[in-house]
Amino acid sequence: MTFKTKKIMIYSILILIVIGLAFGGYWFYKLKQFAYLEVKNYPMHVKKAFPYNYNVGEAEGKSGLEVHFKKANKLSEIRMDSPNNLSYSGEKQTSRAAIYFDDKISTQLELYSLVVKSNQNDKVTIHVDAAHTQFTIGIKNGESIDVALVSHDRENELTVNPSDDPEYEYHHYTLTGKQLVFKLVPHDKRSEKNEWSVEGAGKVPKKIIAE
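Predicted structure:
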């Protein structure tokens, strides 16, 4: 191998290293982007370019939902028509929304959080009923979602020195214009703790257990 060939190889390697560092730095910057919106009035409607991490929640002491989005940069619009109604849109978006409930709703639903991963959907809607015993999830112009129900059994793990990217037990649902209705099974009809019934995923309601 000639000196000239070695020189070309060294320069090529250095160029690849610089490109790799630049690419890694760009993604690190994207992952660290963050913004928070405090909801003061309803309906709330935001349409803009969002950072990768975007949180939406009510002022301290108020009731309602708090939503932590990842891949919010895939969204173009977030709307909350009331404290219990959330929708978010973006063409074929692949965001992840972790939804946290206030103390009252959390106690009645027996859930610490609800996590929804959008799989190439234009719109996702989530509605918690007034009695706080069930919620509905729908999608528009898409095919499927992944849903994780997180019980209070994991609350300490997720609040005390939490992981930046915790693992969840997702349930995959393919939808074609239908809505999913998640109903908390009454205590006297449960076969297991944290049992839920899911309607809309088939002819017979499915039973799942909140992790």
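Summary: The first strand starts at residue 34 and ends at 39.
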